[in-house]
Design brief:
The structure holds 2 protein chains of 2 kinds.
Chain A lengths: L2 E4 L4 E4 L4 E8 L5 E7 L6 E7 L4 E4 L2 E6 L4 E6 L8 E8 L5 E3 L3 E6 L1
Parallel strand pairs in A: 2-11
Antiparallel strand pairs in A: 1-3, 3-8, 4-5, 4-9, 6-7, 7-8, 9-10, 9-11
Chain B lengths: L4 E3 L2 E4 L5 E6 L6 E8 L3 E9 L2 E5 L6 E5 L5 E5 L8 E8 L8 E2 L3 E5 L1
Parallel strand pairs in B: 2-11
Antiparallel strand pairs in B: 1-3, 3-8, 4-5, 4-9, 5-6, 7-8, 9-10, 9-11
The chains are: A mainly beta, B mainly beta.
Chain lengths: 111, 113
């Protein structure tokens, strides 16, 4: 069956460091992958989309990589700030074109 | 503000009851999606509509139903409610059906007591 796995344990890092979050998937051949940010009690907010023929995508302090051989995406936040603390979700298009989300990884950036 | 409006924001109801959650998509968006988020299940896709037609179905219970109206707003109906239905229900919208950003509303908190 199709699976999207994100580290369910919270990631704690110090302000100014680079945060790296991982998304692994199995039994998917996604045309693209998306990353979202979710704050407690709020709706997810779209951050970045990367297509299967793109190795890397950047937006300000964010960088996403997509390795279709490893079936993995890495999400990096450079020069992290306490305001970056949130849960980050990766999402793939699955069967029937429905967007399926991973369980998310909670990031805590300490000042 | 994503432009997706959901009502009500909070709802408390008893087991066995029926509720309707309402969603207005962003202006110009034809696709509407419903997701359920509970603590132990994460964000679960329920159903998608595109321009009034059902497009994709996820893990939606038979007690739940949805529709999209000609003005593109959507309703999610939850009936014979059980305690386990307590969750945050999100509506999202996008311009088309794939390869697009989807925009989420702020959710409707449902508590079944």
């Amino acid at each position: 069956s199709q699976k999207i796995e994100q580290n369910s344990e919270a990631l704690n890092i110090q302000e100014g460091k680079t945060a790296t979050l991982t998304c692994n998937y199995t039994n998917y051949s996604p045309a693209y992958l998306q990353w979202y940010r979710q704050d407690p009690g709020r709706g997810p907010v779209f951050l970045l989309l990367i297509r299967e023929n793109e190795k890397e995508k950047r937006k300000e302090r964010l960088k996403v990589t997509f390795d279709t051989t490893l079936k993995q995406s890495l999400f990096h936040i450079t020069a992290s700030q306490p305001a970056d603390s949130a849960t980050y979700l990766c999402a793939l298009v699955g069967a029937g074109n429905m967007l399926t989300f991973g369980g998310g990884t909670r990031l805590m950036v300490k000042p | 503000d994503s432009g997706v409006t959901q009502t009500p924001k909070h709802l408390i109801t008893a087991t066995g009851q029926r509720v309707t959650l309402r969603c207005s998509p962003r202006s110009g968006d034809l696709s509407v999606y419903w997701y359920q988020q509970s603590l132990d299940q994460g964000l679960q896709f329920l159903i998608q509509y595109y321009n009034g037609e059902e497009r994709a179905k996820g893990n939606i219970l038979e007690r739940f139903s949805a529709q999209q109206f000609p003005d593109l707003h959507s309703e999610l109906n939850l009936s014979s409610l059980e305690l386990g239905d307590s969750a945050l229900y999100f509506c999202a919208s996008s311009v088309a059906t794939e390869g697009n950003t989807i925009y989420f509303g702020e959710g409707s908190w449902l508590t079944v007591v």
